[in-house]
Structure prediction request, 555 residues.
Amino acid sequence: MLSDIEIAQSVTPLEIGEIAARLGIDEKYLERYGHTKAKVDYNILREKEYTSGKLVLVTAINPTPAGEGKTTTTIGLADALSKLGENVVVALREPSLGPVFGVKGGAAGGGWAQVIPMEDINLHFTGDFHAIGAANNLLAAMVDNHIQQGNALQIDPRRVTWKRAVDMNDRQLRFIVDGLGGKANGTPREDGFDITVASEIMAVLCLASDIPDLKVRLGRIVVGYTYAGKPVTADELHATGAMAALLKDALKPNLVQTLEGTPSFVHGGPFANIAHGCNSVMATRMALALGDIVITEAGFGADLGAQKFFDIKCRMAGLTPDAVVLVATVKALKMNGGVAKADLAAENLEALAIGMPNLMQHVGNIQNVYGLPVVVAINRHPTDTDAELALIAEECKKQGVEVALSDVWAKGGEGGIDLAKSVLELVQKESKFTFSYETGTDIQDAICAVATKIYHADGVDFAPDALKQIETLRANGFGQLPVCIAKTQYSFTDDPTKLAAPRNFRITVREVKVSAGAGFVVALTGAVMTMPGLPKVPAAEKIDVDETGKISGLF
Prediction:
């Protein structure tokens, strides 16, 4: 059996100019990065409206080690729609080097449903993440330099909130002390690193609508507080222009293609458990301007990625989704039912029934909270039995939702035709899209709304420090921003061991901080960290390159 990278390397991609031509992109807007990838100048949006295309979100049940195949389904669905004659565009996130070299893997799909060149997409790509990290760290350097050079703004070194960033899983950098070695080397203080995808710069880039908006968002980033408790912004440090200069090319969406030649924008990549988990607004708008149907995805399960896609991205960008595809696998549902990974191949209807509430709660949230039509896509595995598939279909039918089998990993677009037909029916229905809480809701009430409506918690407990932080945010004018809840991806609760659809639990918020540039407040729960670590045997140990430059071991 061929590996993902071997499949990707077996396909000869079309020249990127041909992909651009399919979308009607004039050469003057195309900035090539070799023969198979390019950036598209955002000025094209001044000529084209972005409201015509249908927007379809692909999300999933809570992830498990068994895998769900959300990105694979997204790509295969787009290829299937293309086979049916639709003008379809994919809009995906860029992978972070952290999980690529760690345990999760890349984000270019799998099997015969991939975006290519998958090696480039997973490793550096067009340098967007490096630009984001550089802008992040420029601001960090300017904060410490300001303190060193007289500290005219009276920044309290103990209340600097802006961390440095690196796109790598490096637990050693979570908490550090820097500025050591005497007066000439800075002011000693506690510091730390976030992974680049958790940087507020990433969120800013992905939510910005153009360069002026980018600069406004960068300028209002809060880097810390004065001795008197006043927030200090990047504008006050005169860092905005330089950061925007570093990001001007990173703001342009990246154009690539699927294995079957379907145009794909891969741009931006905030994590969904610690950030808002969606590709850039710029890429989504560009896809909607150029295609009749846009297939996009949000990270992790629907309680994280989809919730943030709806309540943060759609709210801020004025987007109205038309339909949702909810991906599940028999194996993952059985794992939610308590089956060990080693035993998932055996038929187990009892465990499947125990795990099914996880799927049904996600379905109910999409239908009843957000008012959107949804189809369940079962990413089929060879070990799935007819009885197991029938049980899923029966339970979904009770909730009035259709189920479509997807075999795109093995068959590419041809394996997604049934799913594509279901999606075409859904997008013709009237969207009754609503948010889970109203714009302008107090941040504490908004957190409670998400916890009770989406997680089905009994309520929220706020740690004493979190309550103090909320009062400070309110006093500084941040009390009615949308909320971005950082939570484990494995459970509806803040405890990763509680699977399926738990009841009789509460969520505990331990810290609340503002991402003023992004325009939301982050509430941290459980043990979620903004700098992951590598596993005992990282994927990096298997990756290599030969004398011709051919990469191996990359999935």
